[in-house]
Write a structure and sequence with these properties.
The protein folds into three domains: about 130 residues, HUPs (Rossmann fold); about 120 residues, Alpha Horseshoe (Serine Threonine Protein Phosphatase 5, Tetratricopeptide repeat); about 180 residues, DNA Cyclobutane Dipyrimidine Photolyase, subunit A, domain 3, CATH 1.10.579.10. The protein has about 475 residues and is mainly α. It contains 21 helices and five strands. It has a five-stranded parallel beta sheet, with helices on both faces. Bound molecules: flavin-adenine dinucleotide. Flavin-adenine dinucleotide binds next to helix 9, helix 11, helix 14 and helix 16. The site of flavin-adenine dinucleotide has 28 residues, from helix 9, helix 11, helix 14 and helix 16. GO terms for molecular function: deoxyribodipyrimidine photo-lyase activity; DNA binding; FAD binding. Belongs to the DNA photolyase class-1 family. Belongs to the DNA photolyase family. Its EC number is 4.1.99.3. Its cofactor is (6R)-5,10-methylene-5,6,7,8-tetrahydrofolate; FAD. Keywords: Chromophore, FAD, Flavoprotein, Lyase.
Length: about 475
C-alpha cells in the first residue's frame, strides 16, 4: 500500500467519486490535488462566471476534505510537471482521475497518461462525469448518433450503476506537500460584479445535494408541466453543479428513481426530467464524435450563411438586455445578474440573435461561455447549433421564435419579465410582451413612454424573420 495522487478536475465531490474511492481502497495515503492550467483547455478555458464558481467550489471541497482529516492541494500547471513534481515529493506510485470528454482535455489527458506511465507511475482514469461514455453507444450502422430520439431509446435502456458513498477518511501523509493559496489562481472578479451570483448559488457538494433534494421533494412531480415556465421554480437548476461534478449524474438519476418509486420512466415528471439529463449525455456524445462542432456548424452549408454586415450595436443591445423585446431582455438580464438563464429563454434569445439579428451563433456561444455559471462546451455548442438550425437534430431553420408570442405563452402572468425588467412592472399583462403597442391613455396611467422608459424593438420581427429566411434560402439554393 503506497501513496496515490487523486487529480481532481470537474469532479469536485467526495461521494460517488470513483477515482477517489479507488485511491482510498488501494492506498495507505491519498493526496488530492487540483491543478490550475487554463491554457491547456484553450480556446475554451473557463470564462468569468465559471471561474467564480470554481473558486467557491474548490473552497468548499477543501473544507470537506479538511473535515475528514485530509487536504486539497492546489498547484499551478503545466499539469504534467505539477503531477510529476508532486509524485516525487510524496513518493506516490499512482495517479488517478475521472475522465472528461472535451477535445482539448482528452488530448491533454492522453498525453499526461502516456507520460506518467513512461516514468513508471501507475496512471488510471475512471468514468464519473457521464452515465454512458461516448464510445459505448452506437447506432445500428455502428455510427455515432446524430439524432437524440434513437440515442435516448438506446441509452435509457442501459443500466445505471448505483452511486457510491464518500470513502472513509484515509491516513494523511506524514508531511503534507506545499499548496499554493487559492487566491493565486485569480478566479474571483476584481470589479465585484458577483453580488447576484452570490445571492443565487451555493457552489459545492453540500449546495448541490441540497438543490437535488429540494427538486425531488417539490418540483419533480410538476416538472413536465412547469419546466417551460421561466417565472416558476419548475426546473432543478442543477446544471452548474453537474458541470463541476459536485453531484454525479448517477446520483441524480437514482435520486429521481427513488422519488418516482423505482419507475422514473413511467412517471411523467421523472421521464421528462431524465430525458433532459439524456440531452446532457447526447451533447457530450456529439461533441466527442464531432469535435469541430464547438466552432463550426455541423451542417457545412451554414458556414456560407450571409450574416449581417456590421451588427456591433445590435450585439451590445442583446448582451445588455436592451432589444425592446421583454422576454429576450429579461433572459439576458437574468444571465448577467445570476449567471444562469432558463432553458426556454435560452432558446428564444439564441434564436433572436441568430435569426432576427443575423449575428453568427458563435458570438452568442462566446457570450454565454463567459457569463453562464454552467457554461459547458458540449451543452452550449449543441444548444446554439440546435437553435441556429445548423446542428444535429436541429430545430428546422424556418422555425423563428416570436418573442412576443413566446412571452404570452410561457410568461402569461408576466412574473418573469416583471422581475428582470422592472421598468415594465406596472404594465398590464395585455401589453407586457409588446410594450410598444401600449395605448396613449395607458401610457399616461402607467407613466410609461415607449422608447424612453424602455427601448422600442431593435428590429421589426416580421421583416427580420423574412431576411433570415431569405438567407437560409440562399445557402439552400447553393447547397
Ligand atoms: P433541468 O431542466 O432541471 O434539467 C436537468 C439537467 O439536464 C440540467 O441541469 C442539464 O445538465 C441537463 N439538460 C437540460 N436540458 C439540456 C439541454 N437542452 N442540453 C443539454 N443538457 C441539458 N446547458 C448547460 O449545462 N451548459 C450550457 O452551457 C448550456 N448552454 C445552452 C445554450 C443554449 C443556446 C441552449 C438553448 C441551451 C443550453 N444549455 C446549456 C441547456 C439547458 O438550457 C440547461 O442545461 C438548463 O437550462 C439548465 O437548467 P436546469 O439545471 O434547471 O435544467
Amino acid at each position: 500500500m503506497s501513496t496515490a495522487l487523486v487529480w481532481l478536475r470537474r469532479d469536485l465531490r467526495l461521494a460517488d467519486n470513483p477515482a477517489l474511492a479507488h485511491a482510498c481502497a488501494h492506498h495507505a495515503q491519498v493526496v488530492p490535488v487540483f491543478i490550475w492550467a487554463p491554457d491547456e483547455e484553450a480556446p475554451w478555458a473557463p470564462g468569468a462566471a465559471s471561474r467564480w464558481w470554481l473558486h467557491h467550489s474548490l473552497a468548499a471541497l477543501a473544507d470537506a476534505l479538511a473535515a475528514r482529516g485530509s487536504r486539497l492541494l492546489l498547484r499551478h500547471g503545466p499539469t504534467l510537471q505539477a503531477l510529476l513534481a508532486l509524485a516525487a515529493e510524496t513518493g506516490a506510485g499512482a495517479v488517478y482521475w475521472n475522465r472528461l470528454y472535451e477535445p482539448a482535455i482528452t488530448a491533454r489527458d492522453s498525453a499526461v497518461k502516456a507520460a506518467l506511465r513512461a516514468t513508471g507511475l501507475r496512471a488510471e482514469s475512471f468514468q464519473a462525469h457521464l452515465l454512458w461514455e461516448p464510445w459505448t453507444l452506437a447506432s445500428g450502422a455502428g455510427e455515432p448518433y446524430r439524432v437524440f430520439t434513437p440515442f435516448w431509446k438506446a441509452a435509457s435502456r442501459a443500466p445505471v450503476a448505483l452511486p457510491r458513498p464518500a470513502p472513509d477518511a484515509r491516513p494523511a501523509p506524514a508531511a503534507w506537500p506545499a499548496s499554493v493559496p487559492l487566491a493565486t489562481f485569480g478566479l474571483l472578479p476584481r470589479l465585484g460584479w458577483d453580488t447576484g451570483l452570490r445571492a443565487a448559488w451555493t457552489p459545492g457538494e453540500t449546495g448541490a445535494l441540497a438543490r437535488l433534494g429540494a427538486f425531488t421533494d417539490a418540483a419533480l412531480a410538476r416538472y413536465r408541466d412547469e419546466r417551460d415556465r421561466p417565472g416558476r421554480a419548475g426546473v432543478s437548476r442543477l446544471s452548474p453543479h453537474l458541470h463541476f461534478g459536485e453531484v454525479s449524474p448517477r446520483q441524480v438519476w437514482h435520486a429521481v428513481t427513488t422519488a418516482c418509486a423505482g419507475a422514473p420512466l413511467e412517471h411523467p415528471g421523472g421521464e421528462a426530467f431524465l430525458r433532459e439529463l439524456g440531452w446532457r449525455e447526447f451533447a457530450h456524445h456529439v461533441l466527442f464524435h464531432f469535435p469541430h462542432t464547438a466552432e463550426q456548424p455541423m451542417q457545412e452549408r451554414f458556414a456560407r450563411y450571409p450574416w449581417a454586415a456590421d451588427a456591433t450595436a445590435e450585439l451590445a443591445a442583446w448582451q445588455r438586455g436592451r432589444t425592446g423585446y421583454p422576454l429576450v431582455d429579461a433572459g439576458m438580464r437574468e444571465l448577467w445578474t445570476s449567471g444562469w438563464m432558463h432553458n426556454r429563454v435560452r432558446m428564444l434569445v439564441a434564436s433572436f440573435l441568430v435569426k432576427n439579428l443575423r449575428i453568427p451563433w458563435q458570438q452568442g456561444a462566446r457570450w454565454f461561455w463567459d457569463t453562464l455559471v454552467d457554461a459547458d462546451l458540449a451543452a452550449n455548442s449543441l444548444g446554439w447549433q440546435w437553435t441556429a438550425g445548423c446542428g444535429t437534430d436541429a430545430a428546422p431553420y424556418f422555425r423563428v421564435f416570436n418573442p412576443q408570442r413566446q412571452g404570452e405563452q410561457f410568461d402569461a402572468d408576466g412574473r418573469y419579465v416583471r422581475r428582470w425588467v422592472p421598468e415594465l412592472a406596472a404594465l398590464p399583462e395585455r401589453w407586457l410582451h409588446a410594450p410598444w403597442t401600449l395605448p396613449t391613455d395607458e401610457q399616461a396611467r402607467t407613466r410609461f413612454v415607449p422608447g424612453l422608459s424602455y427601448p422600442r424593438p431593435l428590429v421589426d420581427f416580421a421583416a427580420s424573420r423574412a431576411a433570415a429566411l431569405a438567407g437560409f434560402e440562399a445557402i439552400r439554393a447553393g447547397a
